[in-house]
Every structure is written in structure tokens, then in C-alpha cells.
Amino acid sequence: MASTQLSRDAYDRLKAELDDLTTRGRTEIAGLIERARELGDLSENGDYHAAKDDQGKMEARIRQLQAMLKNAEIVDTSSGSSGAVGAGSIVTIKYEGDDDTERYLIGSIEERRDDVSVISPGSPLGQALVGKTAGDVVSYEAPGGTLKVEVVAVDV
């Protein structure tokens, strides 16, 4: 499995989520299942089926977090002072022929923030942007053809 690049903050947040799910979350779900079992016939017990469904979703998230954290690569996002696009940087771009700019965070979807969308460094646009600085114009292959974007600004 390929490593996932995460900032220290994202790694710590995901580790805390995993710890919470494997302790409090499992205990809470077990309690819900036990209370639902006490209601009788399990074949027609909606509370029981809902609790088991929630348990399955939680266990899937636990497995996802375990795999992600096992293969995580902590990146130093404070090194954005170089002005080059890298994991953890926020890049402002402008598509050729468009006057509007768009801001993106370069990194894992787990790094997402409310105010900015995420671009994976492994995506075609992400690959084209990594290492570039403000003023650079890059091209990348999209499903609709080749697109050109200008790097307007790079922030941490």
C-alpha cells in the first residue's frame, strides 16, 4: 500500500479518532446491541439491525484508519517558506482563459478543511503542481483534454 502523506495535526487527529472508536465507540455499540437484543425477536428488530449496521460502519472506519496510520508519512508543512507547492500547501490557481482563481490544499482527503477543497499530490493536477512556484504555468491531462493552469500563490 502506498504511504499517505499527513501533517502532524492530521495524524494526531486521526490517531485520536482511532483511539476513541476502539474504546468508547466499541463499548457504546456493544451496549446498543445488548439493549436491542433484550427487545425480543431479532428478525424483526429494527433497533438491533440498525445497531449492527452502525457497528459494521464503525469497524470499517477503524480498519481504514489503522491502514492509513500504519502507512502514514508525516510531512513538515512548515517548510512552505520555499514558495514551492508541496504536500500541506495551499495553492491558488487560475485556469487558462478564466479570470477567477481557485484555492486548493495539496494533500490527503483527511487533511480537508472547511474553507478549501483538496487535491491529491498523486492526481494529474497535483502532480503537475508539486514543486512549482507562483507565476509558473503548468499543463496536465484531464479527461476532457489538456488544461493549463497558472500558479497564482502558494501558502502554508
Write the layout of secondary structure elements.
Layout: E1 4-6, H1 8-37, H2 46-70, E2 72-74, E3 90-95, E4 101-106, E5 117-119, H3 124-129, E6 137-142, E7 145-155
Parallel strand pairs: 1-2, 4-5
Antiparallel strand pairs: 3-4, 3-7, 6-7
Helix pairs in contact: 1-2
Question: How would you describe this structure to a colleague?
Answer:
The two termini are 27 Å apart. The model has no long low-confidence stretch (mean pLDDT 87). Helix 1 (8-37) packs antiparallel against helix 2 (46-70). It contains 3 helices and 7 strands; from the N terminus they run βααββββαββ. The protein is elongated and about 65 Å long. The strands form 2 sheets. A 5-stranded mixed beta sheet has the order 5-4-3-7-6. A two-stranded parallel ribbon has the order 1-2. The protein is an alpha/beta fold and 156 residues long. The protein folds into 2 domains: 4-74, Orthogonal Bundle (Helix Hairpins), CATH 1.10.287; 79-155, Chitinase A, domain 3 (Roll), CATH 3.10.50.
